[in-house]
Amino acid sequence: MLIITGLLLLAPLAQAGPAAPFALFPVVGGAHFTDDWGEPRPGGNRHEGTDLMAPCGTPTVAVVSGTVSLDYGARSGWMLTLRGSSTWYRYIHMNGTHGARSAFAKGLRDGSRVKAGQVVAYVGNTGDAAGGACHVHFELHRGNAVMSPFRWLQQATILQPNASDPATKPDASSGVTLTITGSLVWATTGADGRIVVRVTKVVASDGTAIDRTGLVALRAGAASLGDLQAGETVSVVTTAQAPTSERLDLKPLAWTAASATRSG
Ligand SMILES: [Zn+2]
């Protein structure tokens, strides 16, 4: 009888391990990530966090309840620090399309109290991530120690965009435009107008790298085609849109042209 009682008491203790420092995933809808803790970085540094890859403008949430501070640094770009009761967190490279306004959730200030799950900032590529893929560099700290958040991220609950809470949708004000250069294949105007370009180069206004060639079809929108002829080299600038992954893959008609001009 004593032995059975002992086993029952010991079993949960043996499985418990250290308590999770956070249980919510920082990026709404999830993100791609690998265990990149400790990887070498320029200047002899080691990577002290986990990079969570998601399109620019994707909302991020407080992983615990706490107090935030908002900063800008040359390396970090727009950065949010979240202080919980025993641990603290950093969200680095937040969206800089419109400065602090696109980096942090509306109404948030230094010292604001936030609840776990509340939208606090938007994914970007500011600081030394400029020109690279949009992501959050996420750090976990306890006192002066920085720890890998990887195993906790793997277990964390992912919040999905909530139709009744606009803050959880990609920030429309952080929309990007694309400048698509290439050879005009064909174009039609009007309500169902299309512009088809054989692409040589795509540049996004927020610096997101888009490596894409081949044919891309856009809605003609309000773009005037003037006397552009098939075969000419053109530069098509799109309207600003939230940069979803589908749009960044240049899915057919995912973008609308704002202008189309002869290039070069
Ligand atoms: Zn990083």
Note poorly predicted spans.
1-16
Mean pLDDT: 86
Number of domains: 2
How many helix segments?
4
Oligomer: single chain
Describe the SSE topology.
Elements: H1 2-16, E1 40-41, E2 45-46, E3 50-53, E4 59-61, E5 66-73, E6 77-83, E7 88-94, E8 97-99, H2 100-103, E9 113-114, E10 119-122, E11 135-142, E12 145-147, H3 150-155, E13 178-187, E14 194-204, E15 214-219, E16 233-238, H4 245-248, E17 257-262
Antiparallel strand pairs: 1-2, 3-11, 4-10, 5-6, 5-9, 6-7, 7-11, 11-12, 13-14, 13-16, 14-15, 16-17
Characterise the protein shown here.
Strands 3, 5, 6, 7, 9, 11 and 12 form a 7-stranded antiparallel sheet that branches. It is elongated, with a radius of gyration of 23 Å. The chain has helices spanning 2-16, 100-103, 150-155, 245-248; strands at 40-41, 45-46, 50-53, 59-61, 66-73, 77-83, 88-94, 97-99, 113-114, 119-122, 135-142, 145-147, 178-187, 194-204, 214-219, 233-238, 257-262. The longest helix has 15 residues, at 2-16. It has 264 residues and is mainly beta. 33% of the residues are buried. It folds into 2 domains: 14-169, Glucose Permease (Domain IIA) (Distorted Sandwich), CATH 2.70.70.10; 175-262, OB fold (Dihydrolipoamide Acetyltransferase, E2P) (Beta Barrel). Zinc ion binds at residues 47, 49, 51, 137.
A few lines on this structure:
The chain has 264 residues and is mainly beta. It has helices at residues 2-16, 100-103, 150-155, 245-248, and strands at 40-41, 45-46, 50-53, 59-61, 66-73, 77-83, 88-94, 97-99, 113-114, 119-122, 135-142, 145-147, 178-187, 194-204, 214-219, 233-238, 257-262.
